[in-house]
Amino acid sequence: MTESLDPRLNAMRPDLADRRLEGQVTADRFVEGALRRIIAPLAPVRRHPAGNAPLDTEALFGEIVTVFDEDQEGWAWVQLQHDAYVGYVPSAALGAPGASPTHRVSVPRTLVFPGYDIKLPPLHDLPMGARVAVVGAGEDHNASYARIEPAGAVVTQHIEPAGNVAGDYVAIAEQFLGVPYLWGGKSASGIDCSGLVQIACQMAGIDAPRDTDMHERGLGTRIAGVEALQRGDLVFWKGHVGIMLDGTRLLHANAHHMMTAVEPLAAMIERLDNKGAPVTSVRRVRAAGTPR
Predict the structure, then answer these.
(1) Residue 108 preceded by cis peptide, ω within 30
(2) Domain 17-95: which CATH number of 2.40.50.140, 2.102.10.10, 2.30.30.40, 3.40.50.2000
(3) CATH class of 103-161
(4) Which of 69, 75, 150, 194 is a Cys-bridge partner for 49, taking CB atoms 3.0 to 4.6 Å apart?
């Protein structure tokens, strides 16, 4: 295989590879892949086809994936359409592409009810960023609802048109304060540092890759030092990233607090300096459409 291609972002194995990579990598065979949609509220994307394999990221309800292979053990080898990440998801989490999403979930977590009644036992929940196709509407004396495919209803104040763009990605990230730290997570059930950056950017119309090293290479614009930081600046350490709330406070999902927390940047720098892990870079991120 060509070592210059990142296996996280290119579907390539010795036995099988994406047909678009033919001539760039060596594989026994190349396939086109088939489009499917995530129908589970949240699908794990694992490094290997096993339930105890490392969790690299998660795919959200409504997300389109390309399936290159499925095994008899219930695992599919896929590439996510949104950020091109490659990994293994449970086949049970996949369905037909279906209708194009019309809306997305705009709060950290919402419940899907079987009908137009908040007193009914929920079918499941959906995470922020999940994309849904609204196919009907209803209301009771408590709320207004949107009926979604394939089943269920969500309250209308928890969704917004799929094309909406949040004005402040940091305000989105702040909604995850107190969420448990989960390596590979990207929802209010558990999230990691780069997942927090990615989902917040996604809601604000900023195209962000999945992992910290990818952010550090190309998200936003590199700036010098930590002396004149602004809200929304990203501060990087080896394998970690945090978001500046202002010139002095850092918001980050981290294993020290085991949750998304806010702390003085100076305290974080001191703690990691003592472990031999200095700041590696700082990058400035602008919202989509913001003048440069």
Answers:
(1) no
(2) 2.30.30.40
(3) mainly beta
(4) 75
- Diameter of the chain by CA atoms? 62
Looking at domain 169-284, which of 3.30.40.10, 3.90.1720.10, 3.30.70.141, 3.40.50.2000 is its CATH number? Answer: 3.90.1720.10
Please tell me the distance from the alpha carbon of residue 93 to that of residue 95, in angstroms, as a whole number: 7
pLDDT at residue 289, as a whole number:
46
Note the pTM of the prediction, 2 decimals: 0.94
Q: What is the edge-to-edge ordering of all strands in the sheet holding 55-60?
A: 55-60, 42-46, 86-90, 75-80, 64-70, 34-38, 94-95
Residue 50 has pLDDT above 70, yes or no: yes
Which has the minimum average pLDDT: 75-84, 106-115, 245-254, 280-289? 280-289
